[in-house]
Automatic annotation (TrEMBL):
Intracellular or extracellular location(s): Cytoplasm
Record key words, sorted: Cytoplasm, Methyltransferase, S-adenosyl-L-methionine, Transferase
Species this protein is from: Alteromonas ponticola
Top-level division of the source organism's lineage: Bacteria
Official protein name in the record: Protein-L-isoaspartate O-methyltransferase
Main location: cytoplasm
UniProt keyword annotation of Metal-binding present: no
Gene3D superfamilies: Vaccinia Virus protein VP39
Record GO terms (molecular function): protein-L-isoaspartate (D-aspartate) O-methyltransferase activity
Length: 211
């Protein structure tokens, strides 16, 4: 994928907002965000804002996508494989697919997963595996993972996801209900350490799956 004028402008805006990882900025610039939006909202594709995609879900603000990805890449372990919880439109998935060797993504809403899978094929991103399932449970059979990213807010830190994190791995997750904080969880020598990054706003991480 090649960057576009609008993509470059968005990447430049994110740089001004504090995103410094050039690989992340390049991925943002080269990913056609309009592909992940309903027709009525395509004109807003390169605005730095979250937008609805149906089923009560949203495509995240580009800054948050870039920030969470940058946090994964700044871990000490040079992650090769990453688990994404909440495929949604597939926008974050596509960014990850350009930066990690292998991406595994779980989505609880079957119709969203189907659409996202089609978009990955359109973009020739073939290092991504998708599953329809409960995000709280992760994807144990494909783990453990060097990195895990959760794109919905959990009421508490999901035990199953922590158990699927490799030694030296990093989990990025929004935690909370009314007040949500982006949280960085690192696994070191069998212990978990957490760091609060910033306040965020995500849809809730709901247990179960629906067709």
């Amino acid at each position: 994928m090649r960057s576009t004028r609008k993509g470059d402008a968005l990447a430049e805006l994110l740089f001004k907002e504090g995103i410094r990882n050039q690989k992340v900025l390049n991925a943002i610039a080269s990913t056609p965000r309009e592909l992940f939006l309903p027709d009525a909202l395509k004109h807003k594709a390169y605005q730095n804002t979250a937008l609805p995609i149906g089923q009560g879900q949203t495509i995240s603000q580009p800054y948050i996508v870039a920030k969470m990805t940058e946090l994964l890449l700044s871990a000490d372990n040079e992650a090769k494989n990453v688990l994404e919880i909440g495929t949604g439109s597939g926008y974050q998935t596509a960014i990850l697919g350009q930066l990690f060797k292998k991406v595994f993504s779980v989505e609880r809403i079957k119709s969203l997963q189907f659409q996202a899978k089609r978009r990955m094929n359109q973009l020739d991103l073939h290092n991504i595996s998708m599953k329809h399932g409960d995000g709280w449970k992760g994807w144990a059979s494909k783990g453990p993972f060097d990195a895990i990213i959760v794109t919905a807010a959990a009421s508490s830190l999901p035990t199953d996801l922590c158990n699927q994190l490799n030694e030296g791995g990093r989990l990025i997750i929004p935690i909370g209900s009314e007040q949500q904080t982006l949280t960085c969880v690192d696994s070191k020598e069998g212990e978990l350490s957490t760091q609060t990054i910033e306040s965020v706003r995500f849809v809730p991480l709901v247990a179960g799956d629906i067709l």
